[in-house]
Known about the structure:
- The protein folds into two domains: 8-24 and 94-219, HAD superfamily/HAD-like (Rossmann fold, 3-Layer(aba) Sandwich), CATH 3.40.50; 27-91, no CATH class.
- It is 44% helix and 12% strand.
- By secondary structure, it is of the alpha/beta class.
- Strand 4, helix 9 and strand 5 form a beta-alpha-beta unit.
- It has helices at residues 26-44, 48-62, 71-78, 82-88, 99-109, 121-131, 143-146, 155-163, 177-186, 216-219, and strands at 13-16, 112-117, 139-142, 170-174, 190-194, 211-212.
- The chain has a six-stranded parallel β-sheet with strand order 3-2-1-4-5-6, sandwiched between helices.
Amino acid sequence: MTLDGFSWDLIDDVLLDMDGTLLDRHFDNFFFEEELPRRYAALHGLAFEEAREHLMAMYRAAEGELDWTDLNYWTGRIGVDVVALTKELDGMIDFLPDAQDFLRHLRTLGKRVTILTNAHRSGVEIKIAKTGVNKYVDRIVTAFEVGYLKMRSEYWPSCQRLLGFDPARALYIDDDQACLAAAGRFGIGYLVHRAKSSSRLPAEPSTRFPAIESFYALMRRPNLR
């Protein structure tokens, strides 16, 4: 799918995912798939692969619910202080290479910019402290404020009431296609898939949504005027 017909004149609100869209998902992938299983294995006397398989099964069982991204929940379940570990590894947290340029561009266009993240507030605060991403946007909304994760159909009407945007004049960008699909069912007018979510992995283009590897593809889009 392409961005044919897209113009910034048609957009009032820009809704942006955080991890994998603005921030490099390499940190989260390493954290949950490598380092946390390593700590869990050491704590419980397991082989790394056994610990990893066990944790991945636990992640899948919670997927779609708020527990899935609740760092305090996982601290209790796993026995590792997940918030403290996030702080320990915060040197890996960074923007994707084009994200800051895009955020500055949105400011010049005068759009209202909101980050919509499934992440837990504790993790968001660590990432804000490391990157200053909050300085580029009008507001950051966590799924815990809304009451649902973004891939749930209940999320979007609650989020719209919270922020007061016109769905038909909103652009939503995310690397998670399930979240984009839920937004589309609600009626968000413009949906874009962020195909390059990690600096260490190849792009994964979508066949369901217009996809970009770089924000520069949107920055080059003209106005209708």
